[in-house]
C-alpha cells in the first residue's frame, strides 16, 4: 500500500510523469490528440499507475496539487508538439474535488495563458460522477470554459448512475464510450447495441464519440461500422512517455 506521507513527498519532489495515449480520427486516419495519464515514479517501487494512488490522492486532497501540475505539464507538452509541427489536442482528466473548486476556471485560464496553449488544444475529461456531484455549478463552469474554446469530454460514458437527461444540461463536445462496452464486443450483441445507441445518441446531440479500450482488429471493425468518430486503445498504442509519443506520431502512416 501507498502511504499518504509518501504521496505528499512525491508532490513536493515532483515524482510524477505523464504518459500519453494517441487518439485516432477514424474519418481521416490521423492522430488528432493524446490523453495525458499520470504515473508516479516511486523512488523504490518503480512506476505506479493511478489505480495505486489516485484514491488516496483524492481522499487526502493531494489530487489538487497533482492535477494542477498535470494540467500545466500537459499544456506545456502540447505547445512543444505544436512547435515541432505535430498538431495534437491534449486530454486531461479532472476529478471531482478539483472540478468542485471555485477557482477551477481561473486555474485553467491561467494555465493556458502561462503556457500559450490555444484553448482549443485542451480537452478536459470529466466522468458522469464528477458532473453529477457538481450538477448546479458544473454547467456554469463548462459554459465559461467553453466560451474560451476549451473542449469537454464525458469520460467512461455509460457506466454512471445518472439519468440521460443531464446530457442536455452539460454542453460537452464528446462522449467517450467506456471500455467495458468494448471488451466483449465480438461476442456480445448487447454490448454492440450499447455502442450503437451511445454513438447515435451522441451524434443526434451533435457530439463526437470516442471508443476507448479498443484492443483488437474486430473491435475496431465494429466501432467503425457503428460510426464512432475517434478511437483510443492498446490495438494502436499504450500510453507512452512524451518522447515516444512524438516518435509514434512521426512514424504514423
Ligand atoms: O492509465 P490508466 O491506468 O492509466 O489510468 C487509470 C485512471 O486514472 C483513469 O480513469 C484516468 O482517468 C485516471 N487518471 C489518469 N491520469 C490522471 C490525472 O492526471 N488526473 C486525474 N484526475 N485522473 C487521472
Ligand atoms: O478512465 P480513463 O479513460 O481516463 O483511463 C484510461 C485508462 O484506460 C488508462 O488506464 C489506460 O491505460 C487504459 N487503457 C487505454 N486503452 C486501453 C485498452 O485498449 N485496454 C485496456 N485494458 N485499457 C486501456
Ligand atoms: Mn480519461
Ligand atoms: Na475512460
TrEMBL record:
Segments forming domain EAL: 1-253
Domain of life according to the entry: Bacteria
Descriptive protein name: Diguanylate cyclase (GGDEF)-like protein/PAS domain S-box-containing protein
Amino acid at each position: 500500500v501507498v502511504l499518504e506521507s509518501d504521496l505528499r513527498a512525491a508532490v513536493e519532489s515532483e515524482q510524477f510523469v505523464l504518459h500519453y495515449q494517441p487518439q485516432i480520427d477514424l474519418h481521416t486516419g490521423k492522430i488528432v490528440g493524446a490523453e495525458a495519464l499520470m504515473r508516479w515514479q516511486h523512488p523504490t517501487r518503480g512506476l505506479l499507475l493511478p489505480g495505486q494512488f489516485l484514491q488516496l490522492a483524492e481522499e487526502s486532497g493531494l489530487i489538487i496539487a497533482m492535477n494542477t501540475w498535470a494540467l500545466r505539464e500537459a499544456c506545456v507538452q502540447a505547445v512543444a508538439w505544436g512547435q515541432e509541427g505535430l498538431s495534437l489536442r491534449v486530454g486531461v482528466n479532472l476529478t471531482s474535488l478539483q472540478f468542485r473548486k471555485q477557482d477551477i476556471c481561473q486555474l485553467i485560464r491561467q494555465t493556458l495563458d502561462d503556457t500559450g496553449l490555444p484553448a482549443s488544444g485542451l480537452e478536459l475529461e470529466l466522468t458522469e460522477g464528477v458532473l453529477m456531484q457538481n450538477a448546479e455549478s458544473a454547467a456554469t463552469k463548462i459554459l465559461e470554459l467553453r466560451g474560451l474554446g476549451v473542449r469537454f469530454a464525458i469520460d467512461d460514458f455509460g457506466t454512471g448512475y445518472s439519468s440521460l437527461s443531464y446530457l442536455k444540461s452539460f454542453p460537452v463536445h464528446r462522449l467517450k464510450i467506456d471500455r467495458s462496452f468494448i471488451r466483449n464486443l465480438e461476442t456480445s450483441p448487447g454490448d454492440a447495441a450499447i455502442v450503437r445507441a451511445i454513438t447515435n445518441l451522441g451524434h443526434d446531440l451533435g457530439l463526437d464519440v470516442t471508443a476507448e479500450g479498443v484492443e483488437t482488429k474486430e473491435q475496431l471493425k465494429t466501432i467503425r461500422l457503428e460510426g464512432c468518430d475517434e478511437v483510443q486503445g492498446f490495438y494502436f498504442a499504450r500510453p507512452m512517455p512524451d518522447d515516444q509519443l512524438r516518435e509514434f506520431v512521426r512514424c504514423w502512416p
